[in-house]
Amino acid sequence: MPTTEQRVSSRPPRVGGPRLSASAPPEGGPVRQGLSINTRVARIFAWVGLLLWALYAILPMLWLLLAATKSGTELATRPPFAFGSFSRIAESWEHLVEFNNGAMFGWLGNTVILTGAQIVLTLVATIPAGYALGACQFRLRRPILIVTLGLILLPGGALVLPQFLEMVALGLVGNRLSVILPGAVFPLGIYLTFIYFSTTIGKDIYDAARVDGCTEWQVFVKIALPLAAPIIALVTFFSFMRNWGEFLLPYIMLNSDQFPLPVGLAVLASAAPELNPNTIGQFDIGVSEVILATLLTMAPVLLVLLFTQRTVLRGATILGGALRG
To answer: Which domain holds residue 318?
Structure first.
C-alpha cells in the first residue's frame, strides 16, 4: 500500500498556475466595479444642479459688467449680453466725477472711514470678549452666551429704531459715531472667538501660565493673542463684509454729506431719468452711470475676498475642526 508521500507525489501537476479562489482578487489589485445606475443618475443631477447654481450666480455679474459698456438706449435695444464700447465707460466715469462736484469720492471716503473705524472697534471689543467667555469661568458666563446667540438670530433691521432713539438721547444723530458704535457690536464675531479660545487653544496652556504667576491680562496678551491670528483675520473679514454694504443705519443717522457708497448709490439712482422721470434734463446720469458706480462699490469687496481667501479659509477650517471635535 503506497504511503501518503507517494500518493501526493503521484498527483499530476496543475496546469495554468495557482487556482484563484472566489474571494481573492486577481493580481494587479481589486476589480473596480462599475457605478450603479442610481449613482450615475444622482451624479448627473448633482452636476446639473451645480451648473444651474453657478449660472444663477455668474450671469447677473456678467450682465453688470457688459451693461456698463452700453447706454440706456442700447440696454433696451441690444441683446443683454452684448458688448458696447470702452468709450461709454470713460463717458460714464466723467459723468460720475462731475455729479454733485465729485460726490462719488466723498461717498468713498465716508465708507472707508466708517468701515475702518467699525473694524477696529469690533476687534477691540470682540477678541477680549471671546477670550473671556472661552477661557475664563465666571458666574454670568452662560447667560451672556445665550444673549449673544439671541442677538445673532435677531434680524439687524429690528434694532434700527431702538438704536435711533438711543442716538437721539445721546445727541449723536448726524455724527459718524451714530453708525460706528452700533456697527462695532458684532455678536457673531464674539461667538466665533469664544469657540476658538475654548476649543482650539488647550486650557492646560492657560492654567500653566496662571500657575507661573501671569495675570489674566498677561495670559491674554502673551499667550492667547499671539495664537489668535486665524480668528482675528476671520472676524476682520466678516466685519468688513458686514459694514461695507450697510445702507439702512447710515441713511437714517447721517447727513447727506456723510453718506457712504451704498446710500450714495440710491442718491445716484434717483438722479437717473430712466429710474426717476422727475429728474429728466437735470443731471448727466443714466442707468449706465449707476451700473458703473455699483461695480466700483463692489470692487473693494472682491479684491479683499481675492487676497484674503487663504487666510479666511484657514480660520474657517480651524473653527470647523474645533466644532467637529
So the answer is: 95-324
